Structures are given as structure tokens and as C-alpha cells.
Amino acid sequence: MKLRYLILPILILSSSGPASAEVTLGVCTLVSCATGYYKNSTVCTACPTPGTSADHNTGAITTCYITANDPLSDTTGTYVYTTNCYYTN
Predict the structure, then answer these.
(1) pLDDT (tens digit, 0 to 9) for every residue of the chain, 89 residues total?
(2) Residues 89 and 61: beta-carbon distance below 8 Å
(3) How many CB atoms lie within 10 A of CB 20?
(4) CB neighbours (10 Å) of residue 10?
(5) CB 47 within 8 A of CB 37
(6) Where is 9: in which H helix or E strand?
(7) Cross-strand pairs, 30
(8) Are 80 and 71 in contact (CB under 8 A)?
(9) SS3 label, residue 6
(10) Is 44 helix (H, G, I), strand (E, B) or coil?
(11) Is 38 exposed, middle or buried (0-12, 13-18, 19+ CB in 10 A)?
């Protein structure tokens, strides 16, 4: 008896993790990144700490920000930003 394999293309509509991806005929296309990540060319990269980003983010590092009114501390004391503070390149 001869074995035969049937390989079918897979279509993924959503996934967990830092990126949402569509897969068609084995070709991956990065659609957007999850909260706390930005789109760095063709991969999702974590925003610098303590930064975050919106869910389904499709922008660069400039879409990462430090959230307003969240207390932050360093050697000089505790402080808050009065508005979201966005990163620059």
C-alpha cells in the first residue's frame, strides 16, 4: 500500500501573542501588534519599559507612550506625566 499525503493551505484569522497574522498558502503577513508592542519592519517589538501602545498597533516606536497619571519612581522621587508621553526616534 502506497501512502499519499494531502497538504492543504491554512488560513488563520487571529492568534494570541504579540502579533496578529494572516497566513495564506504558507505566506505570512504581519497585520498588527498587540498592546505594548510596535511594528518594527516585519516584526512586533516590545515598547521600551515603562511604555505601552494601543492594541492592534500598526505604527512604529513613536506609537509607544508612557501612560499619563501612572506613578513612576526613580532616585529623585515619585512623579507622574500629566499627558501620555510618546517616544521619538
Answers:
(1) 454 544 444 444 444 455 554 445 556 677 899 999 999 988 899 999 999 999 999 999 999 999 999 999 999 999 999 999 999 98
(2) yes
(3) 20
(4) 9
(5) yes
(6) none
(7) 21
(8) yes
(9) coil
(10) strand
(11) buried
Which residues are registered as beta bridge partners of 27? Answer: 24
State the alpha helices, DSSP H only, in the chain. none
Task: Write the CA distances from 47 to 9, 10, 23, 37, 66, integer angstroms.
Answer: 33, 30, 25, 5, 10
Other C-beta atoms closer than 10 Å to the C-beta of 24 total: 11
**Which three cell numbers, joined as nine digits, stand for 55?**
492594541
How far does the chain reach from its first CA to its final CA, in angstroms? 62
* Cα-trace Rg, the chain: 19
